[in-house]
Structures are given as C-alpha cells and as structure tokens.
Amino acid sequence: MLREEQRNKAFLVGAIMQVNDFHPGDLFGQIQSLVDQLDTERKARAAAEMTGAACSSLLTIVGKELLPPMASLATMADRILSGPLSAAQRREAEVLAQSTQRFLGALSEVQDFSTLESGEAELAVERFDLHVMVKEAASVLQERAGAKGLMSGVDMADNCPRFIVGDAARVRQVLMGLIEMALHSTNTGSIRLYASINEASYPITMRFDVTDTGEGFSAAEQAALFQPSADASRVGGGLGLPIARRLAEAMGGGLGCESAAGQGSLYWFTFQTVVADDMPQAQMAGHEAPVEILEAANDDVPADLNPKPEPKHKSGALSGHVLVVESNVVNRLLIGAYLEEFGLTHDVAETGTAALMYLSARTYDLVLMDTALPDYDGLQMAQRIRALQASASDVAVVALTAVSEKDNGQALVEAGVNARVAKPIQGRGLYAALVPFLPAQDEAVVAKAS
C-alpha cells in the first residue's frame, strides 16, 4: 500500500510539472482528471484480485466436493480388478481405474495450484531421511526407465547429510515431478539423478539435478514448461511443473531447466534446509538403508528401499477385531469388504463421538479412522483415543487421509497415530498398513490383496 501511494504521488508531481499555464482552474481540472484515472486503475486492480481470490476459492471447494466420490470410484475399480473377470471386463476395469487415478491426480494439482496462488499453502517442518528419499526416487526411476529401455543412474555427493529438516512430502512431490518430466521427454539413452548440498550458507541449500538425453527444448519451449497449460504435448503441459516451481520457491529455493534442442535437458531443484544428523539416535530407528548407485536398464526386482517395522507375520489372513470410523457410506462398504477378505471382524462408527463410545465399551485390536469426520479431525480424534482409560488408549490407530488434506503426518504421529493409508484405498496398501499391528491366522492366505 505504501509503495502504491508513493507511486501515485510521483505520478501527480510529474504531471503537474508538465503543465505550462498555471491557471488555477486548468490545474485543478488536470489534477482531478489524474486522481480519477488513478482511482479507476485502483478499482480495476481490486476487482481483478477479488476475481482471482473467488476463482481460487471456487476451485478449492469444487475439489473438496469431487475428491471423495472419485476416491470411492478408484477404490471400487481396485476391488473389481481383484476379482475374477473375463479379458474384456478386465480391460474395461483397467480403463476405469486408470481414468479415475488421472482425474484424482488432476484434482490434486488444481487444489495445490489454487492454494499456492492464494498464499495459503502451509509447509511442514519435520526431520526426514534424505538417503531413504533418494533411494525411493532411484527405485521409481530405475523401474520406469527400464520399462522404456533406458539406462538410469543415481548418486549423491559425499557431504550430503543423512537427516535434514523440511517438508518431506513436498520435496518428494517436486523431485518426482522432475523425474516424470525427464521420462516424458526421453525415448533413448539415459536419465540420471544427482543430489548435492551447498554448505556455504545457513540455512544450507539442497540441490537435485535430473539430466536426460532426450530431444531437448528450445528457449520458447523452456519458457512454456512452467506456464499452466491444457496442452499435454511433449513440452509437458498441465500444472505439474508450475506447481513444482511455486513449491520450490516456497521452500526458499528454485526450479529450472537448462536445455537446447537436440541436446538433452538438465532439470534442477533447490530448497533451503538444516542438518538434523545430531538428533537422538533413538529417532533414527528403521532408517538404516544406505544409498547405492543404480545402473540398470531392466531389473524386475527393485530393492527394499524403506524398511518398515517387522510385521507380526509375513503373509496370510489376519486375526483381530477392528473399529472402522468413517462417515462416507461407500467407503464403509469398501473397507468392510477388504477387512472380511483379510479375515478380520469389524464394527462401524459414523462419527468420532460414536467411536469413542464403542472404544469405552468394547475391546478392539485396531482403529481404522478417517481424518475428516463430521465432529472431529484426525488430530482431535487421535488425542481423544489416547486419553481414554485402561487398554482402550493402547489400541493401534491407522488414519485414512485424503489427497485434499494438508500434509500433517508428523502432527498425527505426535497425537498417537501409528500409521497412515492414503485415499483412494487400495487392497495392497491397506493390508500392508494393518500387518504390523495384527496377528496372523495360520490356516488362510490372502491372495486378493496382492
């Protein structure tokens, strides 16, 4: 506001100095005309800002309304694919599953973009394992590049720390976006990922470089990469890279592309962070897999890159009684069907209040709860469960989180959530989340979850 007032005053002074005849009437008329012009421009800017805010708000609302039913459709498609189908039925079900996943991805991008444009984006501040994140990216790159007959390589600078602080989910999102772009634009040759760190300043700067031997981009095409577009041509299109750049800037860094037609491309991403290697050793449990360089065109068995807590059994039907806390009737039906396949019994509560009553009266082995209930959010619900008396407060809690929700994983963990499952719910993901907390049945094998 101050800057605008100064600009307006300078504009008026400059205009007055150009008036040759200082007749009071003429001077007043000139000033009044300029004031009217400035007022008109101010109102136009305000109207444009209001329109932009309204569009952003509308996109957010529409996304929240569309995501739940689309997530249910995606879960239903997964359920259909797990059953016996003819060849034609399987093709149709696969098209349904792929289409719903693409729609969910587009909705998520629209919501991300509108949130970033409105300045309402919130970044998590959490300690995470950089080495594990790079290994996860390496696994995806190796598998996807191998499927296209490409070589792949991943490496890290020797001075890269093990643990750093930042928004792990957002860093992963941007990094995977760059890998996706390289895969999209490369048909022969190789793709390499390199992680490095600049310790010359504080906070330190983390950098990822993704290089490919693809067709490359002209200067005009490079500029178009970071513009929102509906054109999903070889220059990218969509909202992925514009969102990635805004996220990188929000994290104190940047994102860009260096390329020339016919000479491949270098995509880079930087963000500010601090080293967290000096935190207590007890917090490092379960993250001891070292980073390795991957050089392969085809490898059918990627390594186990993110070791989980040792499950109570390796495979087979589960045993236990589960409380499902979910307000959406379709999700309740789908979750119930999965739990029955896994060999589990369950009760259903539609609200957090009802769930707390169940927990006070009965014994459960696990609570599977939505984090957007009508009466409580995930944090509130976890806190209330842990505040219950006796054994009810020790029950394992697995949270169901939607794409549209802000990532608050660390806060959920601190509130008492043991694990999370992202919606849309799929059999393999749900089964993997339950395995560490439930005993096995000896006589059954769950094949449909795989």
Automatic annotation (TrEMBL):
SMART domains: HATPase_c (SM00387), REC (SM00448). The keyword Phosphoprotein applies. GO terms for molecular function: protein histidine kinase activity. It catalyses: ATP + protein L-histidine = ADP + protein N-phospho-L-histidine. Residues 321-438 form the Response regulatory domain. Residues 61-275 form the Histidine kinase domain. It comes from the Bacteria. This is histidine kinase. Its EC number is 2.7.13.3. It holds the Pfam family Response_reg. GO terms for biological process: phosphorelay signal transduction system. Gene3D superfamilies: 1.10.287.130, 3.40.50.2300, Histidine kinase-like ATPase, C-terminal domain. The modification 4-aspartylphosphate is found at residue 370. Keywords: Phosphoprotein. Coiled coil: none annotated. InterPro entries: CheY-like_superfamily, HATPase_C_sf, HATPase_dom, His_kinase_dom, Sig_transdc_His_kin-like_C, Sig_transdc_resp-reg_receiver.
